[in-house]
Design brief:
Elements: H1 2-15, H2 24-70, H3 75-108, H4 116-158, H5 164-168, H6 171-200, H7 204-211, H8 216-227, H9 231-264, H10 268-301
Helix pairs in contact: 2-3, 2-10, 3-4, 3-7, 4-6, 4-7, 4-8, 6-9, 7-8, 9-10
Length: 311
């Protein structure tokens, strides 16, 4: 019996031996270490993906939007546009998730030849897995909101909060203020919950890339296990990262947009050049850092998982 107890304890100890309590500083350090070591590869893959997606968008959607502008009240054109937008979004997701797999695999295993067949199967599989996860998260939010609505509605009704006397005595304002405060609290709770869900599955892609698997269940399950000890630290890191990216995009967009707008004078060609420069100077770096972040967290919580290939 004692031997069995020690075996169970050793099993749990060994299961946790490849996990580390993450610090936000370590996550940032590993994120930018990966970016520094792989920026050229990422620039090629992400830049190429942006060009391909941009061309596809122009070919698939360009004529559609022109037709809608000429006949804005034609329902058949609007339905056709929705179908083409969905198709374009699906193809774009396949391309970007496939490229992300190529980046993560190449960064964690440098010198290995790109495995396109695996990447463009594993990428869409991960995209579908995350889609199912987020749908489940929104269903949970809907159920909780529905239950809270029933509870608070019954409570207010039971207290006679909506009676004429309560309304005449200023109860409507109190109810309105309380409802607003409750909505704000619920909205913040919903954002935190979604950040928590995304944080728990943040390293699913790097797990799949490191193990060279096409099975999203493997990546999602391992991500859930690895992120457990550091789940709220990851939420804080995710929040700081999102705020930093927003501030950078806002400031860089104002600078580049204002300077180029003043130089090019607002012509159609100038607007096109401004969009190209903005994409290269603002959005491309953000995308590259976003691709680096999951591997940074993966390395911070499981340092033995992918070796020290970009330390």
């Amino acid at each position: 019996m004692a031997r069995l107890g020690w075996s169970v304890w050793d099993w749990f100890k060994n299961r946790g031996s490849d996990m580390t309590k993450m610090s936000i500083g370590a996550a940032f350090s590993e994120t930018f270490a990966f970016l520094k070591a792989n920026w050229m590869q990422m620039l090629i893959w992400v830049g190429g993906a942006l060009v391909v997606v941009g061309l596809l968008g122009f070919l698939v959607l360009g004529s559609t939007f022109s037709a809608i502008a000429l006949a804005p009240n034609d329902p058949s054109l609007i339905m056709s546009a929705f179908g083409k937008i969905f198709l374009f979004a699906l193809v774009a997701a396949v391309i970007f998730y496939g490229v992300s797999m190529l980046i993560w695999r190449g960064g964690m295993h440098p010198g290995e030849a790109p495995n396109f067949a695996w990447a463009f199967q594993a990428g869409p599989a991960l995209a579908f897995g995350m889609f199912v996860v987020m749908i489940a998260a929104y269903i949970v939010i809907f159920i909780v909101m529905f239950i809270l609505t029933l509870i608070f509605g019954a409570a207010l009704g039971g207290m006679g909060a909506f009676s004429p006397a309560a309304l005449e005595s200023g109860g409507a304002g109190a109810i309105g203020g309380g409802a607003i405060i409750l909505m704000i609290i619920l909205y913040i709770a919903m954002i935190v919950f979604l950040l928590w869900v995304q944080g728990r599955f943040l390293v699913a892609g790097p797990v799949m890339a490191n193990q060279l698997t096409r099975n999203p269940v493997t990546g999602l399950g391992e991500s859930w296990r690895l992120t457990g000890p550091s789940q709220w630290t990851i939420v804080g890191f995710y929040l700081l990262f999102t705020i930093g990216v927003f501030i950078y995009a806002l400031i860089a967009g104002m600078i580049f947009g204002g300077v180029l707008g003043a130089i090019l004078g607002g012509s159609a060609v100038g607007a096109m050049l401004t969009m190209i420069v903005m994409a290269a100077a603002v959005y491309l770096p953000i995308i590259m850092i976003s691709f680096s972040m999951p591997v940074g967290v993966y390395r911070a919580i499981a340092p033995r998982a992918s070796g020290d290939v970009f330390a």
